[in-house]
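Holo prediction — 3,4-dihydroxyphenylalanine.
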Amino acid sequence: MLEKINRLKAEIEALTAADAAEVEALRIKYLSKKGLVSQLFNDFRELPADSKRQLGAELNMLKNFATEKINSLRESIETNDTECDGIDLTRTPSPMRLGTRHPLSLVREEIIDIFHRLGFTVAEGPEIEDDWHVFSSLNFAADHPARDMQDTFFIQRSPDVLLRTHTSSVQTRTMENTQPPIRIICPGRVYRNEAISARAHCFFHQVEALYVDENVSFADLKQTLLYFAREMFGSETQIRLRPSYFPFTEPSAEMDISCNLCGGKGCSFCKHTGWVEILGCGMVDPNVLDACGIDSKRYNGFALGMGVERITNLKYQVKDLRMFSENDIRFLDEFTAAH
Ligand code: DAH
């Protein structure tokens, strides 16, 4: 009898179960009325009285042991079930798709970085503006065509509320609130009333730079432009300045860089001239300084403004402006390597 008890104990100790149904089968096999442990109790009854004492205790211990073992098997299966909630934690996860930064953001950040190295800090202003900050303070004549509804989105007339057509409005806002030295870079979105096509859009992005201090010269402007062009497009890049006109600068210029596709030899991209235009610039018109409360007899400055789409096109040869705002994953994925 004792031998039987020990054998059964060893057998029960080694039991395992994969799910609740298996545990139940084990319970029936060992602990039900006709189970193996109960059968031993039946045999026990037939024993002579003198062996009953010792064996009775052994038998009770076996029953308790079997009950505990089966309960613990049941418990471990139940806790497993709730913790994992049917999820196989050993499976390899499916690869997660990471997003990419928008090419315009990449280029805007690069422009800002270059100007940061020259000591310029970022300034921002509102996209919904008034006439003063977008036009009047910047020396636009009363009959300037940009003030026309054909070019500008007006939200309201007299007093005029409009979507800014350029980031030069941030120049004015900064000069109104700060005395020189001023060295700011103003990135932002601008709006113009244009029909949308591959080459024009009703909104786009600009970065403006403004430097106002004592004794700022055109040579400072030119060197800043050269530094920017070489950092942005490579150390071989050449620049040239052509005289131009903007109401808020005098003298004004437009800057071309040597075509970065053909290296200046001439190709269809630069219309076989070897040069591509990238920005407008000039010395801040004294009228603008005065309008913003800065003494134009003591201070002068330079300003420049460029289109982020234009720079991006030059860097990455994006042929159609509309790609920038269509959120086409195939287009955006092309810039993964540019990070
Ligand atoms: N605001 C001009 C535009 O939208 C760009 C520009 C030209 C900005 C010359 C300037 C500048 O600061 O000096 O076309």
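READOUT: The first helix runs from residue 2 to 13.
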